[in-house]
Amino acid sequence: MTTSLGRPALVAAPLLVLAAHLTQSSPSAHDTASELASIAAATGRYQAAGVLGFLACLLFVPALLTLGADLRVTRPRWAAAGTGLSITGLLALVSLQGSGPVSQALAESPGRAAAIAVTDAYEGLPLPTAWVLLMLVGWVLGPVVLGVGLWRSGATPLVPVLLAGGVVVQMADAGRWPLAAGFLLTAAGFGLCATPIGRPASRTVASPEPVPALS
Q: Which of 61, 102, 112, 213 would suit a FRET pair with 86, their CA atoms being 20 to 30 Å apart?
């Protein structure tokens, strides 16, 4: 899987995230009322973005496993830490995505005030809060850890720079298009890992000297 699907997934998965972001209608503000209003105004786009996001998560599994496999020989600890963080964050992200249809149903309900109250109550529950924290720690830091490990193993330093840059721009959340630029930086970092310059440098292991035959 890391050879036949992993390399293409490194390119396709983050681009699907960018496509999902551009497909979904952006809220006018970062509050529950604005987010529900944006969903209600374009439910078709919201559903399409959900499908693209889920496909991206599916492809991120072989993509992340491929990065871990590339790194395991030269930097096993970096590989274990980065892959573990990334997969944990990815699972948390998928768990949060599961609330998407519920959010759409609430956005389309006639009682908007009640829908806002229910959404706020859900987001304040311990489990969704834990998912958000795991996503932020794992999904944000995991790929950067893998990128740094790849660089220390001989890959181009552009890999961790692009991945970290994407995180910084996304966390700034300065609007629809700056956020898209952050996703594009992340896609460029993952895409480089699908090329030879984004992989660990090949190392030739010296053959042991032959043992002289006993006469």
A: 102
The SS3 assignment for 153 reads: coil
**CA nearest to 192, candidates 14, 19, 5:** 14
pLDDT in tens, 58-82: 999 999 999 999 999 999 999 999 9
Look at the block and give the residue holding tokens 């209003």: 37
pLDDT at position 46 is 96
Q: What number is the average pLDDT over the span 163-185?
A: 95
Quote the crossing angle between the two packed helices 32-41 and 43-72, to the nearest 10°. 110
pLDDT (average), residues 174-200: 95
Is the alpha carbon torsion for 16, 52, 179, 24 positive or negative?
positive
